[in-house]
Amino acid sequence: MAEGERGRLIVLAGPTAVGKGTVAAWVREHHPEIWMSVSATTRPARPGEVDGRHYHFVSPEEFDRLIAEDGLLEYATVHGVNRYGTPRAAVEEKLEQGESVLLEIDLQGARQVRERFPEAFLVFLAPPSWDELVNRLVGRGTETEAERERRLATAREELAAVSEFDATIVNTEVEEAGRELVDLFRSRPPADPAG
Ligand code: 5GP
């Protein structure tokens, strides 16, 4: 790679329950050359999650401080409860070093990245069909009718965001979707620091 060449910033986003996390985990496991940002979150760790690896688990006060210091490249409240954000310094450092960087974030975050990094490449992970997404969202049948309606309304809005993205990958099968994402990384020219 030529000296001074910046790395590529790719964002993987998509509707709730489409399987972004699973596709990102496949990429992490099979393509260690792609650097995945570790987000900060105010959500408590789930069993098996490791601080600094899956997330940086922080208090609401620490999250506020990160925002105040302009330490987050983007941040959002997801599902109306917990806050999640991408630490800025590590991403910028990796891009400077010419490494490819992948962010797996929600739609609100993807829109912020678009504004701040016009050269970022935004990939929308789509469900195989609307029916499939509905199944994944309401399949468990444990939600009330009102809750189901709310989730479906959110999903409809989220699906409409597809036109804001540079590419779409249909998540029919995890490995296939992961490979497509990596191919996109490889086929994209590196980001132009001039924008
Ligand atoms: P979970 O709590 O299940 O790990 O993640 C919930 C949601 O938060 C997922 O949709 C994931 O994409 C999103 N998310 C994770 N990290 C970030 C981040 O740094 N920024 C934003 N905007 N969303 C994130």
UniProtKB/TrEMBL annotation:
- Species name for this entry? Aeromicrobium choanae
Tell where it localizes. Cytoplasm
* SMART domains reported for this sequence: GuKc
Major subcellular location class: cytoplasm
Coiled-coil-forming residues are none
Identify its protein family.
Belongs to the guanylate kinase family.
Which keywords belong to this entry? Answer: ATP-binding, Cytoplasm, Kinase, Nucleotide-binding, Transferase
In this protein, which residues make up the domain named Guanylate kinase-like? 7-186
- EC no.? 2.7.4.8
For ATP, which residues are the binding ones?
Answer: 14-21
| Purpose of the protein | Essential for recycling GMP and indirectly, cGMP.
What reaction does this catalyse? GMP + ATP = GDP + ADP
Which GO cellular component terms are attached?
Answer: cytosol
> EC class of this enzyme?
transferase
One Pfam match, given by its short name, reads Guanylate_kin
Among InterPro entries, the record links this protein to: GK/Ca_channel_bsu, Guanylate_kin-like_dom, Guanylate_kinase, Guanylate_kinase_CS, P-loop_NTPase
GO molecular-function terms, A-Z? ATP binding; GMP kinase activity
What is the protein's given name?
Answer: Guanylate kinase
Q: What is the lineage of its organism?
A: Bacteria, Bacillati, Actinomycetota, Actinomycetes, Propionibacteriales
